[in-house]
Each structure stands twice: as C-alpha cells, then as structure tokens.
Fold this protein.
Amino acid sequence: VSVMATGMGCPSMGIYSYELIHGYGCKNLIRIGTCGAMQPHVKIRDVVMAMGVSTNSNYLNCFGLEGSYSCICSFDLLKKAVDVADKFGMKYHVGNILCSDNFYYPEKPKTGLDWTDMGILACEMESAALYSNAAHAGVNAFSMFTVSDSLVTGEVTTAEERQTSFTDMMKIALELA
C-alpha cells in the first residue's frame, strides 16, 4: 500500500496515475479526497463513491477518440467498497460525479439543464483522468470522497474537521487494499 498526494486537477492526476501504472506497475488505484455535494440528499460528511465521472475537462481529448468516453470505475473495487461501507454501517451514495476544471464558479443565471438536473451527486477535480488512464492501461481505479461542503446549502466544514473527521473513506480504502 502506498499513499501519496496527486495535486489538483486532471493534468496533475494524469501524470501521477500514468507513472504509478506504467513506472511502478500498480494494478489498483484508489483515490480518496473531498467533494462538494450537488444534491440535497447528499450531506456533509457523507461518503460518495464515484461509479461514473462526467467532466467539463478537455483531458479526455488527449486520447484522440472520435466521440465521448464514459469514465467508469472498476466494478470489483466499487462492489468491495459498498460491502465494506455496509459492514460498518456507514452513510454513502453511489453514482455519477462531476470532475471539473473549475474550483470556483462565477454566479450565472440558469438558462437550461445543468449537472444537478442530470443527477450528478458531487463535484471534484481528478477522477476523469484517473479513470481514463486506468481504462487505457487495463487496470482498476476507484474514487470515493467525503463531502466537505454543499453547493446546495452552502454548508462547509472547517479545515480541522476535514483533517480529523473524514475517516470513513480511509477505512474503506484500507479494507480494499
């Protein structure tokens, strides 16, 4: 088991995950981190497991595919994570997340459908690169997060809370490893 930081955003995750896979032979990559809730039923400190990843990043264009690639996790890792969360009675959500190149969004009027209308659970910044690099290399990848803030309610956690109380996702990840 190796624990490392990957920096922020798809380019940074792209570099680290590529090197872990191709330089070190990693076959299972598990990302844990924080996310912002995008649905009212997803609450602060809940765990979100990313079955799929939608993105506004151009990272996937680097693969030169003629269409849109659907970034999905390893089913085996997802199933094991759900089993662990159930075993420990943890609160979690499984579904599609948004991997965004933006951390802060300017306020703008709603003119049509948005990510929340499509059922996106939460937003983060790295999983599209992780899932696509893993798929291209034929290895397993899985991302899960603890909700640190809500884009719905405006609720946020403190730095100390993020440092000391976001342990459920860590317990799940260590059980997977």
Observations:
- The chain has a mean pLDDT of 94.
- The helical segments are 10-22, 75-87, 127-137, 159-165, 168-176.
- The beta strands are 28-37, 47-55, 71-72, 92-99, 122-124, 140-150.
